[in-house]
Amino acid sequence: MKLTPAAFLCTLAVISHGADAVLTFEKDVRPIVKAHCTHCHGEEEKAKGDVDLRLRRFMDDLITPGDPAKSKLVEVIRSGDMPEEGKPLTAEQLAIIEKWIAQGAKTSKPEPLALAPGPMISDEDRAYWAFQPVKRPAVPRNVDASQMRTPVDAFVLAKMAEKNLKFAPEADRRTLIRRVTLDLTGLLPTPEEVDAFVADKSPLAYEQLVDCLLASKNYGERWARHWLDVVGYADSNGFSEADSVRPHAWRYRDYVIRSMNDDKPWSEFIQEQLAGDELAGVTHASYQQAVLDPKRTDQLTATAFMKLAPDGTGDGPEDQKLAANQTIAEQMKVMTSSLMGLTVACAQCHDHRYDPITQADYYRLRAIFDPAYFWQGWRSPNNRLYSLYTPEERAKANEIEKKVGDINREAQAMSKKFLDEIFEVEILKLPEAERPAFREARATAKDKQTAEQKALIKKYPSALATYSLDLYDKKKQDLVLAKMAEGTALRGTKPPEGFVMAITEVKQNMPPSHLFNRGDHEQPKQVVEPGELGIIAQPDIEPLKPVKTIGGSTGRRLAYAQWLTSGKHPLVARTLVNRFWLNHMGRGIVNTPGDFGRLGELPTHPELLDYLADEFVKGGWKLKPLHRLILLSAAYRQSSVNDPSLRADPENKLYARFKLRRLDAEALRDSMLAATGVLVPTSYGPPSGIGRDPQGRVVTGIDKGTITANKVDPAGEADFRRSIYVQVRRSRPVTVLDTFDAPTMTPNCEMRSQTTVAPQSLLLMNDTFVLENARRLADRVVKEYPTDPRQQLDRAWQLLFGKHATEADLTRSLAYVEAQTKALKDYHHSIQHAKGVVPNPPQEALASLCQILYSSNRFLYVE
């Protein structure tokens, strides 16, 4: 039997929704027409073609219940006439509409008789899981208690039981310490740490290990990186090709690292980032008082969060107001995706096509931040920098600058005196009749010289003697330069002036906020008041009643920050704990961490998500206790091998095994450096520089490149700092990090990709960073065991893999080194070496093996 296209599509719908499923307008059809149709047909002030698709009752002229073939709605969709804009409906979506009509075009409940023009938030929208209050669920009891270590396990086991799965066996101790150390610090454990943990038979050994790692300064450097991804941290402005540098952004990075190490409550952490200036009681004109108090300086520093999006307004865009509004739009993306797990970008121009977020919602939310951004009087990046000088330091700097001015004026007077003396000699070389006129021309300001005077000077240029003293008398020029050098040296004694990149408001500045037609700032429509998204706002709570601030700012952002961290917001805690879980387990409970809306994935363990969110809030918004809850669980401590889980749950949505995953970019680079012993542990401060080398690679070092040539000079210890301290340029990512999926901030990174692509293998085979560290690793193991090749190899195994080499490993490796040494000797005998080059084939062969070890899955992956 041959199916007609309509019948085939209906068959698809039956397969998708179940042969006996009764479709309803609210649950099945409205999400489709909202995404594709109601933007024009119902949500505008006047519905296009007088067709309103927001309610079933408005569709009587478009559908024939029971007969999809006679329904005009189906006809215009199938013909491609509708929708006129955007993506057409998929075959499955059309099939759903057809099946719904065939079943009688039912609704789930009576509809209102009329609707006001514009968007509507339905009961189904309000019932969506992400917008429901967080409610602490009971810990499941019908699970095997013998497999549980923390309450987390009960939730995971309850879901696993649906597929008859059990936890994988616990990972062995060497695997476990390598895993948790990389997880919490981003660095490999040392062989000594591994051996001590393996030898510790105490039942509390693992718990003590976790506590020790959480107390390490390396913890903050590792977990700050996760947050810096989400907020789009970079040391450059992006936006335009200039990608100008943000020389003071690093203070925000350091603030995040310190906050992580101090286990600052995230309620405080978020409030400081959104409204630290208001907490500190400062405005644009009164910031100076904040720098006298370290806590208030910290709060001001935190507000750089609101300035991390790409911003090219300091690079001279043709339309400054357009660029300012684009920067604000990008920052709104960062703020909402990082704190609320929502995408709001499309609501800038029209009502969100999938989620219940209206355009008015978007501009109400933006109005909270308008006094700080104030696009009509936009302040470019350099005008958002605040000096860290104390009054005493400023007074000393001004005094020194005054003395420098005196010295420079003295040098200028010396130069003029010497030039005047030279002039009196040079003028004698001119014809006597022209000397008075030349003398007058020289004494006349250049912009007031007559044509005759200019011609006379052009006739005798060497007699002018008003500049380039060195052309006449180099010794006298040296005297002037020496005097100027005194000023330069004195200026070098000024107290170093630091700056904070921050957001502040202009005191008592409350610009009106408007909804922009189609997102165009040149088409303002109605005034909007600051407010929460309608789907989240709760009638019994006033989240946006401005907080009175001592500095005279509006208090809008502080009020909003307090609402977000009140524990009553349905999204903030869920969004945060979902990311924490993702970074530990390799997969989020909601595996679209920046989108909890309709286009995002549904939570695999909604009860666990709410349990963690509630535990986080009730625990004072502290992250370290939540780490312990997850890390001490049986779910985390599993082996990565569980054959039944691989078959029943290939994506590991049920967590019946530990997710095998590759080292991320920073852990890879840092662990390579640490294994060789050259990693510099210095924390905080300005970033290590980067540049493009002659091969086109971006590497650490001092950029000496020109317009026509690339060059990077070594920067000493700065080249070997942890990756979090390496400069992040949006337009120039470091090659070794970029190749292994370090994100480019456009504007932020909600979840990192983890690819396996050919350039990674090529980099491990050819990149000088890998080759140099392979040589360093070979040098290290030879230095530690100068005469024992087996011990050298075993030490390399311990440093990189956290375990001893097996006899088979040693046999194969020794054979490789021997064969490679012979080949290298033959090679060196066949070529002429440069003077001073002394080949060392055995060491080169060992370095070649170390490179292979660096490139092995055993090093690259965390089990």
TrEMBL record:
InterPro entries: Cyt_c-like_dom_sf (IPR036909), Cyt_c_Planctomycete-type (IPR011429), DUF1549 (IPR011444), DUF1553 (IPR022655). Residues 37-83 form the Cytochrome C Planctomycete-type domain. Residues 1-21 form the signal peptide. The keyword Endoplasmic reticulum does not apply. It comes from the Bacteria. SUPFAM superfamilies: Cytochrome c. Residues 151-371 form the DUF1549 domain. Residues 556-816 form the DUF1553 domain. Keywords: Signal. One of its GO terms (molecular function) is electron transfer activity. This is Cytochrome c domain-containing protein. It comes from Brevifollis gellanilyticus.
